[in-house]
Design a protein that fits this description.
single chain
C-alpha cells in the first residue's frame, strides 16, 4: 500500500492528509477498495468533530501498522459521506465495520482507545 489518501478534491483535512497507515475513502472508492478487494478490510466510520475519534486515532494508526498487509484499514468521514453512513446504518462514531468477500462480518461501536481493544475489534471477525 502507498501513503496516498483517497478523497475528493477539496475535502482533505489535517488528519486525512497525514502520512499514516490509514487511508480515507469515499463513496466513489468504497466498492473498489473494500467490497471488491481481496482479503479482510476494517472501516472506521468517524467524524473529525468526534472527541473519541480523535482519541482513538494514534492507537488506530499503531494497530494499522501492526496488522500490515494482512488486513486493510480505512476511514470514512461520515460528515462528508452521509449516504455511505446511512447505507451501513452508522448510529455513532467511531464505529468499526469489518468486511470480507463483499460481506460485513463484524461491527464494533466505540471501542476504548487502547491498542488491545482496537486490535481485537478489527481482527477478531477474521479469526475463525
Amino acid at each position: 500500500m502507498t501513503n496516498q489518501t483517497l478523497v475528493h478534491p477539496g475535502q482533505m483535512s489535517a488528519r486525512s492528509a497525514s502520512n499514516g497507515a490509514i487511508k480515507t475513502i469515499t463513496a466513489d472508492t468504497f466498492t473498489k477498495l473494500v467490497l471488491d478487494a481481496e482479503g479482510p478490510s476494517a472501516v472506521e466510520f468517524m467524524s473529525y468533530g468526534c472527541a473519541h475519534c480523535r482519541a482513538i486515532e494514534p492507537v488506530l494508526e499503531q494497530v494499522a501498522k501492526m496488522v500490515g498487509a494482512r488486513e486493510k484499514i480505512f476511514r470514512v468521514n461520515i460528515a462528508v459521506e452521509e449516504e455511505l453512513a446511512s447505507t451501513y446504518q452508522i448510529q455513532g462514531t467511531p464505529t468499526f465495520v469489518m468486511f470480507l468477500n463483499q460481506n460485513e462480518v463484524g461491527r464494533v461501536e466505540g471501542p476504548s482507545p487502547t491498542v488491545e481493544s482496537v486490535l481485537a475489534a478489527v481482527t477478531q471477525p477474521f479469526e475463525s
